[in-house]
Design brief:
By secondary structure, the protein is an alpha+beta fold. The protein is 23% helix and 28% strand. The longest helix is centred in the N-terminal third of the chain and has 10 residues, at 49-58. A 5-stranded mixed β-sheet has the order 1-2-3-4-5. It is globular. It has one domain (2-189): ANL, N-terminal domain (Rossmann fold, 3-Layer(aba) Sandwich). The protein is built from 6 helices and 12 strands. InterPro entries: AMP-bd_C_sf (IPR045851), AMP-dep_synth/lig_dom (IPR000873), ANL_N_sf (IPR042099). It holds the Pfam family AMP-binding. It comes from Gossypium armourianum. Residues 2-131 form the AMP-dependent synthetase/ligase domain.
Length: 202
């Protein structure tokens, strides 16, 4: 990949967070001229604030932007726009046009205020109507008012920026706590001697 960036003078790359981490920690980046790179678009999983900050320290000229979307939303449901928003490390941006969202307590079904973590529900003209031929999956994923239950644990800050915490199904239940594996992975990634990490319940 680094050879291709150098050879073809790549300016933009869509990437996943593990690739951002690898670029941040790898010394191989010093062996190639990747100065043509202007922007990375990260998605597919939560990108930790610490990893994003370290990436920007190493590559200050490269804008690192995040976005969020699902197949069921027809693409991007939230995105970071411009350098000022890109500097808000950890957020996937604000909602796309014509998209509604709410954070819902997965146990009670109650809508939660900004700063509270819960399941992200989305609604809008690009959100699917259901799964063809699978009424059971549709009923589990969509409510009667057209809200899509994403299965992602998220929160909004007071300015409307969305933060992805983890997948609802991946939460590790320990005593009275629900621990997001991604948070533990981000903590492990912050150690300079750890190149990558995956947390699973044991």
């Amino acid at each position: 990949m680094l050879r291709a960036i150098e050879k073809y003078k790549v300016t933009y790359m869509p990437v996943s967070p593990p690739l951002v981490l690898a670029l941040t920690k790898s010394d191989l980046t010093n062996k190639y001229d990747i100065s043509s790179l202007l922007m990375l678009g990260s998605g597919g999983a939560p990108l930790g604030k610490e990893v994003a900050e370290r990436f920007k320290e190493k590559f200050p000229a490269v804008e690192l932007v995040q976005g969020y979307g699902l197949t069921e939303t027809g693409g991007g449901a939230a995105r970071v726009i411009g350098p000022e928003e890109a500097a808000r490390y950890g957020t996937v941006g604000r909602l796309s046009e014509n998209t509604e969202a709410k954070i819902v307590d997965p146990v009670t079904g109650e809508a939660l205020p900004p700063g509270q973590r819960g399941e992200l529900w989305l609604r809008g003209p690009t959100v699917m109507k259901g799964y063809i031929g699978d009424e059971k999956a549709t009923a589990e994923t969509m409510d009667s008012e057209g809200w899509l239950k994403t299965g992602d644990i998220c929160y909004f800050d007071s300015q409307g920026f969305l933060y992805i915490v983890d997948r609802l199904k991946e939460l590790i239940k320990y005593k009275a706590y629900q621990v997001p594996p991604a948070e533990l992975e981000h903590l492990l990634h912050s150690h300079p001697e750890i190149s990558d990490a995956a947390v699973i319940p044991y």
